[in-house]
Amino acid sequence: MNSSIIIIFLAITLAAVLGQDHGPGSEEFKKVADECKNKLNASDDDMKFMMNRSAPTSRTAQCLMACIKKGIGCMNPDNTINVDNAKKQLEGMKENKKEMYDKVVKSLTECKALETPETDECAAAKKFNDCMMTNRD
What is the Cα–Cα distance from 72 to 54, expressed in whole angstroms? Predict the structure, then answer.
């Protein structure tokens, strides 16, 4: 998957999408990220994957991703991805970056179709992230 799609997917994780008030600079995002960091006793190193726009590798970082996804409404309580909400968060890019929007929505839809029940929210977030990273165009 090209780096732009990976960045967009991570932007969903961070809710850093155009026109939203849940972006990384927003008070809402900071609140969710701080709550998750404290809840998981995560270190600054665990949070680096977000800053580096890369996949989380440690268990704590994977759980942090799941917590943030749930906090911003992109992951359901049953550990499935909420594609409809993720698409809503991407609405701001639809007009200016239509081709990228379409690719990300296609990947979200395809990964959702491949989703299997997962009782472990950290593993669910990692599996979905891995799918988005490997599910090219």
Answer: 19
